[in-house]
């Protein structure tokens, strides 16, 4: 209780001092200083800040422009993506087969070397399935297939942040026949460049 009383008395004392100080300041305000000669004011005045910033370009837009590849580099990326064959999977499996690894391996090193210079440029790995099974099951399986391919590409050095996965399940078949040869073509991953705002 004594502690609370001391704090209250201290607060009242501070308020009293501040009120008294403000009253004295208003009552005895000093006269404003005499105006300085015009020549002294002109010499003391600093140069306007806008003159310096107008001649110096801001660094942020330059750095941002370098985060996306040029049109020629994007064309080379598209060429590499077209060369990378779809990686195919066995029935009901999401692990990469040797032929799928070979398909991903052939041009992934050059793709890695290009993408490391453009961290905002991203690729999408699409996972696909054949027509058998429910929609929900195939969406989950397509996602696992895309993640397997992503894991491999991250191991060869492509940053994970530049790889997005999406599963289409059985919604986007490349073949409509109802036999094993066609189903094999639909069990795949496909890599595309993610559309960029330029």
Explain how this protein is built:
The structure is a single chain. By secondary structure, the protein is an alpha+beta fold. It has a domain at 65-193: 60s Ribosomal Protein L30, Chain: A (2-Layer Sandwich), CATH 3.30.1330. It is 54% helix and 11% strand. It contains eight helices and four strands; from the N terminus they run αααααβαβαβαβ. It has helices at 2-27, 38-44, 49-55, 59-65, 71-83, 98-115, 135-155, 180-186; strands spanning 87-88, 123-128, 163-169, 188-193. A four-stranded mixed beta sheet has the order 1-4-2-3. Helix 7 (135-155) links the parallel strand 2 and strand 3 (163-169). The radius of gyration is 34 Å and the shape is extended. The two termini are 68 Å apart. The model is unreliable at 39-47, 49-54 and 59-65 (pLDDT under 50).
What layout of secondary structure does this protein have?
Elements: H1 2-27, H2 38-44, H3 49-55, H4 59-65, H5 71-83, E1 87-88, H6 98-115, E2 123-128, H7 135-155, E3 163-169, H8 180-186, E4 188-193
Parallel strand pairs: 2-3
Antiparallel strand pairs: 1-4, 2-4
Helix pairs in contact: 5-6
Uncertain parts: 39-47, 49-54, 59-65
Mean pLDDT: 76
Q: What is the strand tally?
A: 4
Strand content: 5-15%
* Strand and helix order: HHHHHEHEHEHE
In the CATH scheme, the class of the domain at 65-193 would be Alpha Beta
Radius of gyration: 34 Å
Whole-Å distance between the termini? 68 Å
Structural class: alpha+beta
How would you sum up the major sheet?
4 strands, mixed
- What would CATH call the architecture of the domain at 65-193? 2-Layer Sandwich
Helix content: 40-55%
Name of the CATH superfamily of the domain at 65-193: OmpA-like domain
Q: From the 3D structure, determine the CATH topology of the domain at 65-193.
A: 60s Ribosomal Protein L30, Chain: A
Strands side by side in the biggest sheet: 1-4-2-3
Number of helices: 8
What does the overall shape look like? extended
């Amino acid at each position: 209780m004594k502690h609370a009383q001391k704090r209250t008395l201290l607060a009242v004392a501070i308020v009293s001092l501040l009120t008294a100080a403000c009253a004295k300041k208003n009552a005895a305000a000093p006269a404003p200083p005499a105006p300085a000669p015009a020549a002294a004011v002109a010499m003391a005045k600093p140069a306007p800040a806008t003159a310096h910033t107008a001649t110096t370009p801001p660094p942020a837009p330059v750095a941002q422009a370098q985060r996306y590849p040029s049109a020629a580099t994007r064309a080379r990326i598209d060429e590499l993506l077209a060369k990378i064959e779809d990686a195919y999977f066995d029935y009901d499996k999401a692990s990469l087969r040797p032929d799928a690894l070979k398909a991903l391996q052939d041009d992934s090193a050059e793709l890695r070397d290009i993408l490391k210079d453009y961290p905002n440029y991203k690729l999408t790995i699409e996972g696909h399935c054949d027509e058998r099974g429910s929609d929900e099951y195939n969406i989950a399986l397509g996602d696992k297939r895309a993640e397997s391919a992503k894991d491999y590409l991250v191991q060869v050095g492509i940053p994970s942040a530049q790889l997005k996965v999406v599963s289409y399940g059985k919604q986007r078949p490349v073949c409509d026949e109802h036999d094993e040869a066609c189903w094999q073509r639909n069990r795949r991953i496909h890599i595309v460049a993610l559309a960029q705002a330029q």
